[in-house]
Amino acid sequence: MRLALDHHYPIAIAEQLRSKGHDAVTTLERGWQAEADEALLTFCLGERRALLTNNVSDFMTLVRQWATTGQQHAGLVFTSDATLPRTHAMIGRYVRLLDALCRTNPRDDALLDRVQWLADAAAR
């Protein structure tokens, strides 16, 4: 699974995922951080990257609209600040959870048109 991290996540997460052999980038590294949500999903689709974001309401609205017209997306991985805050102290936990998700879904198109919640069993 190829992954893009929205600009709200520490770059260190992508760096550590790459050190584990995963294809992970950040929107900051790609220069996509100022792009509108629709453009961001289009860029991710072009590179077959699922997008990690916590912007659930905006992206769910968008993918529902796309679904009515048959427009695909490369996948969304959602997080919640309530269970997985986007802080530097949480980098290790994010790396562990995303490493497991990528290993469980090795194909580039594993999350095509899917929405996945990143959840930490220890937080439940």
What can be said about this structure in brief?
This protein has 124 residues and is an alpha/beta fold.
Can you walk through the features of this model?
This protein has 124 residues and is α/β, with parallel strands linked by helices. The protein has one domain: Rossmann fold, CATH 3.40.50. The chain is built from five helices and five strands, in the order βαβααβαβαβ. The protein has helices at 11-19, 27-30, 37-46, 56-69, 91-104, and strands spanning 2-5, 23-26, 49-53, 76-78, 115-117. Helix 4 (56-69) links the parallel strand 3 and strand 4. The longest helix is centred in the middle third of the chain and has 14 residues, at 56-69. It is globular, with a radius of gyration of 13 Å. The two termini are 26 Å apart. The mean pLDDT is 94.
Strand neighbour order, sheet with most strands: 2-1-3-4-5
This entry's quaternary arrangement is single chain
User: Termini, distance in Å?
Assistant: 26 Å
CATH class reads Alpha Beta
Structural class: alpha/beta
Predict the CATH topology: Rossmann fold
Helix content: 40-55%
Biggest sheet record: 5 strands, parallel
Question: Which strand-content bin applies to the residues?
Answer: 15-25%
SSE order in H/E notation? EHEHHEHEHE
In total, the number of domains comes to 1
What is the C-alpha radius of gyration, as a whole number of Å? 13 Å
Average of per-residue pLDDT values: 94
What CATH architecture do you see? 3-Layer(aba) Sandwich
* Spans of at least 5 consecutive residues with low confidence: none
Q: Which geometry do the CA atoms define?
A: globular
